Amino acid sequence: MHAGKPDITAELVALLPRLRRFATSLAGAGAQADDLVQDALERALRKTHLYKPGTRLDSWVFRIMQNAWIDTVRAGKVRATSSIDVDGFDAAGVDGRTATEAAVTLSRVRAAMAQMSPDHRIVISLVMVEGYSYREAAEILGVPEGTVTSRLFRARTVLEQSVFSLAAEGGAP
Amino acid sequence: MTISEEHLMAYIDGRAPPDVHAAVAAAIAADPSLAARAARQKALAHSVRAAYAPVLDQPVPARLTAVLDAHSRAHFRLGSARGWLGAGAIGAGLAASFAFGLLVSGPRAPQSDLIADASGLRAGAVLAQALDQQASGDAEDGVRIVMTAPAQVGGYCRAFIAERAAKALEGVACTEGAAGWRIVALQDNSSGAPVGAYRPAAGALSAATLNALEARRTGDPLGADEEQRALRRGLRK
């Protein structure tokens, strides 16, 4: 190995679909998600020397990405409550009447996510979309595990009310 | 055990310790209103996951792979190929090429990828055309050029991957004046990703192939602009 410069590009290529999913859950679909992925990739490549080989690369890059997104939100470059490009998604893999129902529910979820605070959005995404354990999410966020569970509980309550109230109103966003 | 909201959440997320899991499951079985809340939470968890699942199947925009590709080429420039990749991946070298009977043929079959002559292997018509014309990163007719570096007497060496049916070869070809392309290294690449799939520039190649390029290059691999200029001038002279 070249001293201090592990080559992580091949592994990053393999992570791209997941990075785009994480970015989409934070920033909404389309160009804003890919801007975020690009920002995170560039940051990760600049900091390759800080990555410890043998540790999980995905957690390391997810941490970089959530920091990048927080920076962007704080800088006011995007509104934290971004509008979500619902048309940027399709309901691939489901069919018939189920597809319509599923698409309505899923667009509700994305609309509800777009209204949530950055901290809530991140924790929902890490645990409920990306499937990280509470401990892994805590490591990515650099906070105690108890903070993750309490934040996740509040975030989930907000999300639940939002999704099911939209459902009750029959209103797709 | 009193079931708290946090217990229920951990149960839904599959993150509850065994004792908590068992307690929540028992409470749900005994309490229809708790069961209803659990069902609602499960539906929410399912919907949240499903809402973003389609992203995984979308094609990755080229601008993102380009970021990694540029880095991979620059990285190759920093150290020797051997030092960078480690010693584990050294392949069997040129001898392995003759396992690929379909790719190699005698001088009377100009459509072959590789032509064996008295002094070794030359690129056949299809491969030579790719070596003459394609930019690094492009894949056409099953041939992907991975990178280009200047070589002796004003010539160039190019690392390539050629895929035919289920077999794939990677190698290094160097110009021999205007005459053609001499194959100076050849390796099995059948375990790699398909040629059409994206791979970072240097990461797609074995250490043996990178070492062969390393041994012959007289300067850094060309950047995209430099390579375009060199391709317009013609690599063979």
Describe the structure.
The complex is a heterodimer of chains A (173) and B (237). Chain A is mostly helical. Chain A has helices spanning 9-27, 31-46, 57-74, 96-115, 118-129, 134-141, 145-169. The longest helix of chain A has 25 residues, at 145-169. By secondary structure, chain B is α+β, with helices and mostly antiparallel strands. Chain B has helices spanning 5-12, 18-30, 32-52, 62-78, 81-85, 125-133, 207-216, 224-233, and strands at 104-105, 114-117, 120-123, 139-140, 143-150, 156-164, 167-175, 181-188. An eight-stranded mixed β-sheet of chain B has the order 1-2-3-8-7-6-5-4. In chain B, strand 2 and strand 3 (120-123) form a beta hairpin. Chain B is rod-shaped and about 85 Å long. The termini of chain B are far apart. The model of chain B is unreliable at 76-110 (pLDDT under 50). At the A-B interface, helix 1, helix 2, helix 4, helix 5 and helix 7 of A face helix 1, helix 3, helix 4 and helix 5 of B.
Q: How many helical stretches of chain A?
A: 7
Give the ordered list of helices and strands of chain B.
HHHHHEEEHEEEEEHH
Number of strands of chain A: 0
Strand content of chain B: 15-25%
Oligomer: heterodimer
Number of strands of chain B: 8
Helix-and-strand structural type of chain A: mainly alpha
How would a textbook summarize the main sheet of chain A?
A: none
Low-pLDDT residue intervals, each spanning 5 or more residues of chain B: 76-110
Mean of pLDDT of chain B: 76
First-residue to last-residue Cα separation of chain A = 51 Å
Please give the order of strands in the largest beta sheet of chain B: 1-2-3-8-7-6-5-4
- Give the helix level of chain B as a range of percent: 25-40%
The percent range for strand residues of chain A is under 5%
Straight-line distance between termini of chain B? 84 Å
Helix/strand/pairing category of chain B: alpha+beta
Shape of chain A: globular
Q: What coarse outline of chain B follows from CA principal-axis ratios?
A: rod-shaped
| Count of DSSP-assigned helices of chain B | 8
Give the mean pLDDT of chain A: 82
